[in-house]
Amino acid sequence: MKLTMKQHGFRIELPHQTLDIDGNELFGIRPYQLMVSSIAGCSASVFRKIMDKQRLEIDDMEVSAEVERDEMAANRISRITLTFVVRGFHLDKEQLEKNLQLAHNNCSMVQTVKDSIEIEERLEVIHLNHY
Prior knowledge:
Layout: E1 3-5, E2 10-13, E3 18-21, H1 31-53, E4 57-70, E5 76-89, H2 93-106, H3 108-113, E6 118-127
Parallel strand pairs: 5-6
Antiparallel strand pairs: 1-2, 2-3, 4-5
């Protein structure tokens, strides 16, 4: 991975896209947004793989992230709350909670930061009916 300086921030060329990184959202994605999206994306991907292996009838899933930062410590990320909204058919919330904990334990990004950032996952299940 190589970052190249540009007028504002840095650019990284990835196989499928170019990503501009800058502390100012006008010029690119902010570094803390990359960190949070990496953690949320990894966690969601592992959670989805677990549900796919169990052949659960998932229609859709969204993940939102709330971030707390500590201004007294270089504005570091101190806490991330991930809320997973899963929509589907015949869903067992208790099983999904177990799957989410399994995802937490197997997400490489969560495991990388678990000693420095508090990560909380919440689950909302929306049951859909067949018509």
